[in-house]
Amino acid sequence: MEFSGGTVFPVMLLLLCALLISEGQNMADSTSSSCDYPAIYNFGDSNSDTGGIAAAFFPMAAPCGETYFHRPAGRASDGRLIIDFIADHLGLPFLSPYLDSVGSNFQHGANFATGGATIRRQNESWFETGVSPFPLDIQVEHYTQFKERSAYFYSQDKVASDKSRLPKPEDFSKALYTFDVGQNDLAAAFRKMSWEELRAALPDIVNQFAKQIRGMYERGARAVWIHNTGPIGCLPASTVKVKNPPPGYLDEHGCIKSQNDAAMEFNTQLKETVVQLRAELSGAAITYVDVYSAKYGLISNAKKHGFEEASKVCCGIHGLENDVWCGNKGIVNGSEVYGGSCAEPGGIISWDGVHYTEAANKWIANLVLNGSLSDPPLPIARACHPQI
Question: Using an 8 Å Cβ cutoff, are 81 and 40 in contact?
Fold first, then answer.
């Protein structure tokens, strides 16, 4: 069939439009389909530690874990953490700590986070300050060893049951890699630095974080989910010690303003670095998650969301005198007291003055998992698609 010159252009234009529509639909489908992660590998501090520091040193004491696990389960909470809700949301089991040698199953991932972990190595003792000897770069090295050794043993095991606790080698590139670290770098800086010194140190802290993300990319990580740091100035363990503060020291919600300013500055630099990494590591899907806004939104509107005032602590005793940490005994006003838990943890935001209750963690997780606080704004189930 022949077309006259007057009909060729409209037909070609129609075909071109159809092709563009089809291509656009394919691109939309690629970013709307679920990722079906076979595993999660997590890195961070006590906000996402499911038992690493407990396995390395001392187990958590009761009443930690009482709400969900009904026993101490390595978590600094009465129950589940945000990382637990992430795993559950994605249809995966809770993550076993890499450092825990008893009862661990790594088929669907591993948790390298440890309580007290920092981005930068600190010259402080865990026994004196709670700073973990497993900072982010060591956690990445643990992951490297885990990946290499698990692949070796997976290839050696001949019986299917012997492989049931090991990840499939091909699953590493399809897994979700989550990061929640930085709060302890700020806490350490508050102990040792002036605000000017901390401001000068922040670029190096963020750059060292970026270095580890690049290292994970070289090791095959592609879907990366990064939480910024929370409003550290709102932690009751610190705010309850403030007596007769000068004007402007606390914000309208009772949080230490300078500490939250430091957290927000860290987060600003972190987000800028994530944008740079996204352009640099074109094969990766890197998501920045504004957990700060979720946590501060809960703290600043506690009663509206069904919680008691945010300054309340469920487990332990904190005040102007000696702290009695959750599950421990101590001396207050000359008498020995026990730092037990409150009757209704579900109505309290802070578990022990530093960490959050399961109810608060669940509230925060529900807010961040849908992508409303993410850049790019994709829910976690679809955050494996690189944004062009």
Answer: no
Handedness of CA 67, 69, 70, 72 (dihedral sign): negative
The stretches in the chain having pLDDT less than 70 are 1-32, 126-128, 157-161, 320, 388
- The ranges assigned to domains in the chain are 36-305+356-382
Evaluated on CA atoms 63, 128, 319, 351, the torsion sign reads negative
Rounded alpha-carbon distances, angstroms, from residue 372 to 13, 321, 364, 367: 38, 41, 12, 7
CA–CA gap between residue 382 and residue 169 (Å, rounded): 22
Q: Would you say how long the chain is, in residues?
A: 388
pTM of the model: 0.90
Residue 279's contacts (CB-CB under 8 Å, 6 or more residues apart) are none
Q: Which residues are catalytically annotated?
A: 46, 352, 355
Q: Which CATH class is domain 36-305+356-382?
A: alpha beta
Is the CB of residue 176 less than 8 Å from the CB of residue 40?
A: yes
List C-alpha distances in Å: 175 to 109, 154, 169.
8, 17, 11
